[in-house]
# Entry
Amino acid sequence: MTLSKWLLRRGLELDSILKWRVTKSDVVLNERWATVRKDVCVLPDGRIIDDYYYWEGGDFAQVLAIDRAGQVVLTQQYKHGVKEVVIELPAGMVASHEEPLDTARRELLEETGFSGHEWRSLGVLNVSSAKATTRAYPFLVLDVVETALPHLDEAEQIRVFLRPLEVVIEMMCSGEIADSNSLSTCLRALRVLGRL
# Structure
C-alpha cells in the first residue's frame, strides 16, 4: 500500500498534515555543550503535549573530500555521545559569523590539512527532525590536496586517512562508517558523482 492510499484511508492527504502550535517555550538547560528546550504544544486535533523536550544544537558543515587519485579523506576520533571511536567525514560547527561553505573549507583544512577549489553544496539535512533543531550542510569537494598540517581544537584527537571511494562505500554498507550524517552526505555526493 502506498503512503497516499494509507493517508486517504485515514481521511488525510499528503498536503493536509498540519503543524503543531507552540503555546509556551522555555530553555530548561543552557550549558556549553547543550541547550535543551521544553515546549507546550497543541496538536491539530486539540490535544496538548505539555512536556516536549528537544535539543537546540548548532548547525554544522560536513565534507566529502576526494583527491585526484579518487581517495576520500576520512577522520577517526572519539565521540563522547556514543562513547566510541568513530570514522566519519570531516565536519565542524558553523560559527555565527560564517556561511556553511566557509565553515566546510575551514574545517577540512583545520581537521585534515587538505584544501580544494571545486566545491559543491549538497543541500541541507535535518540531523534529528523530532529531537533537535540542528541542520547539517553537506558539501562535495574534488581534487583536494594536502596543503597544511592539521590545526586541532584542544579537545580533539583526530587520525586522518585516505581510502578509495569504492572502499568507503563498502565501509558504509558494513557499518564501519555508522555516523548517519556522514552516510547522508556520502549518499548525496554519490548521486552527484553519478554513482547512484
Notes: The two ends are 26 Å apart (CA to CA). Residues 60-192 form a domain with the Nucleoside Triphosphate Pyrophosphohydrolase fold (CATH 3.90.79.10).
